Amino acid sequence: MEATKFIYLNGEFVPFADAKVHILAPVMKYGALVFEGICAYWSAAARQSYVFRNAEHVQRLRESMRILRFDDSHLPAKLDEIVRRTVEINEIRSDAHIRLAAWIDGAGEMDSAGPVSVACTAMARAERTIDGRFRTATISNWRRIDDRSMPPRVKTAANYSNSRLALMQARGDGYQEAILLGVDGKVSEGTAACFFMVRNGVVVTPPVTSGILESVTRATLLEVLRDVLRLPVQERPIDRTEVYVADEAFLCGSVYEITPLKSIDRIPVGKGEIGEVTRSLWNSYESHVRGETGGNRGWLTPVFGSVAAAAM
Ligand code: PMP
């Protein structure tokens, strides 16, 4: 099945069927791949699509490569332009999900630093409502990976076996989402999303040292909560039992956006309804990602009608 028409692969856009990787490449043998999931949002009013926080995603991809010691010296300088162009060349005039990936190619071994290949794909995505994604969650009995062994700060495909274990167990047990505790027993994050709760009027989320991915959405929401909604915010360790007495709780991420939690371990969150803070945060997030707030804080890259980039 063709999920998208053109895929960026090492300097050119190739048809879907031609984007291939060899079975003996270190990416296949050792999971040596880092990636970003990025969203673009369609604005009907502006007849324009905007890539959300393109530069921050590219920066995180570079940091993931650095920690895993990929040789990034031959990478295209303008990865952000590749992201924009991938949406444009596929003419996606709706919301879109973009995947930018870099991996160890060739036929090397575990200690190969290259050659590094780069690919970018973009696929149309349906618009969502907050009411359509009100979910149940459980605290997983799997622990989140840790900076001493598999650093969660690195967005590598290999880390997602931890997420998969937790998610498959949660689904098998009848829940929609899993929340993982870290090795210290404190709340870490979801399987592909960060965790927030509201307790007594304060919005709380674990710090970046709690075994989480340094989420772009988390950083965005912290800024919106502080500067736009003017709510008190704390980044601090969260105990398991705190989530059972939270007034509101939600997961956040590029794909999850803001996903409110209905219950955790079958205990209703607050009144079991989508809370006021969660709803107003969603409204604010929606207007920021679609460029409807006036000043866009440098968060948006227009897709269509840009002057074509020089080197890719
Ligand atoms: N944590 C994990 C483990 C994730 O996979 C994701 C999704 N990238 C997030 C958090 C949210 O990160 P972001 O807001 O940058 O998408």
What does the secondary structure layout of this molecule look like, with pairings?
Elements: E1 6-9, E2 12-15, H1 26-30, E3 33-43, E4 48-52, H2 54-67, H3 79-89, E5 95-104, E6 116-125, E7 135-143, H4 160-172, E8 177-181, E9 187-190, E10 194-199, E11 202-205, H5 216-228, E12 233-235, H6 240-244, E13 248-253, E14 257-264, E15 267-268, H7 276-289, E16 300-302
The protein binds 4'-deoxy-4'-aminopyridoxal-5'-phosphate.
Describe the structure.
The chain has 312 residues and is α+β, with helices and mostly antiparallel strands. It has 2 domains: 6-124, 2-Layer Sandwich (D-amino Acid Aminotransferase, Chain A, domain 1); 131-289, D-amino Acid Aminotransferase, Chain A, domain 2 (Alpha-Beta Barrel). It is built from 7 helices and 16 strands. It has helices at 26-30, 54-67, 79-89, 160-172, 216-228, 240-244, 276-289; strands at 6-9, 12-15, 33-43, 48-52, 95-104, 116-125, 135-143, 177-181, 187-190, 194-199, 202-205, 233-235, 248-253, 257-264, 267-268, 300-302. The strands form 2 sheets. Strands 7, 8, 9, 10, 11, 12, 13, 14 and 15 form a 9-stranded mixed sheet that branches. It is globular and about 50 Å long. The model is unreliable at 308-312 (pLDDT under 50). Residues 37, 189, 192-194, 213, 215-218, 253-254 line the site of 4'-deoxy-4'-aminopyridoxal-5'-phosphate (PMP).
